[in-house]
Design goal:
With 267 residues, the protein is of the alpha/beta class. It is built from nine helices and ten strands.
């Protein structure tokens, strides 16, 4: 797709505008202080929190919500841990009541082992939430038909997985992702599967509008350094996409051809 941007290349999601295209999570960090430092190093403006795993009433400095409020981050509640459409809708409404935001990352899981999405239930929940005024960012499979249906329902973005959550395998099916990118009329944000900076750069070079990651940063040996690497990789990949790479060829073409060179037989 042609990314929806302003002149300074901000990312538009519904009524929201973001300079950073890296969205990060808040789980699995060894300590709150490491989480705080990693979030700062990532440069992320949007940070997702699991509604069912975080005390939404705890907003002091010793809580993750307190850290996010201190940074002025945009909080993106997610419905992680929900296995039915009804539960996901209920959880999203709780987040809106407690946090005062209509942004929601919709997750309806279908399998406890792989954490793959339940696509039919995701579609049902997405339709209900959009009708209720939510700005819905659904976690989904890398199926282009599902992505189109979510867009048609009014979702503000689609978030296909690149690989199973927490696997760090990188983009396993670039062909499906490429089809989604070609056909989408809303931002495409890769959610799940990124393991290291090269994965992030590749996704952005393909034309993805953003990335969401947690385990790749929080689970690294040095989360703060990895957060910084992911920030730079996301920015570099985006710049490379906008710059336009050279076409791939079977063999090289001389960058300094002999035509016109003094002394050349072909001069």
């Amino acid at each position: 797709m042609t990314p929806e941007t302003t002149n300074d290349d901000t990312l538009a999601i519904g009524e929201h505008r973001f300079a950073s295209r890296l969205f990060v999570g808040t789980g699995k960090y060894p300590s709150l202080e490491v989480a705080r430092a990693a979030l700062e190093a990532s440069g992320a403006e949007v940070v997702t929190v699991a509604v069912r795993r975080v005390d939404l009433s705890a907003t002091g400095g010793a809580s993750i919500l307190g850290v996010l409020l201190e940074r002025g981050a945009t909080i993106l509640p997610n419905t992680a841990g929900c296995y039915t459409a009804e539960d996901a809708v209920r959880t999203a409404k709780l987040a809106r009541e407690m946090l005062g935001t209509s942004l929601v990352k919709l997750e309806v899981l279908g399998d406890e082992a792989t954490l793959f999405p339940d696509v039919p239930a995701t579609l049902v929940a997405a339709e209900a939430l959009v009708k209720d005024g939510f700005t819905v960012l659904p976690y989904t499979s890398d199926d282009p038909i599902t992505a189109r249906r979510l867009e048609d329902l009014g979702c503000a973005a689609v978030m296909p997985l690149a690989a199973p959550i927490g696997s760090g395998l990188g983009i396993r099916n670039p062909y499906n992702l490429e089809i989604i990118l070609q056909r989408a009329g809303v931002p495409v944000i890769v959610d799940a599967g990124v393991g290291t900076a090269s994965d992030a750069a590749l996704a952005m070079e393909m034309g993805c509008d953003g990335l969401l990651m947690n385990t790749a940063i929080a689970g690294a040996k040095d989360p703060v350094r990895m957060a910084r690497a992911m920030r730079m990789a996301t920015e570099a990949g985006r710049d490379a996409f906008l710059a336009g790479r050279i076409p791939k060829k079977l063999y090289a073409t001389a960058s300094s051809p002999l035509e016109g060179v003094i002394g050349s037989e072909r001069a």
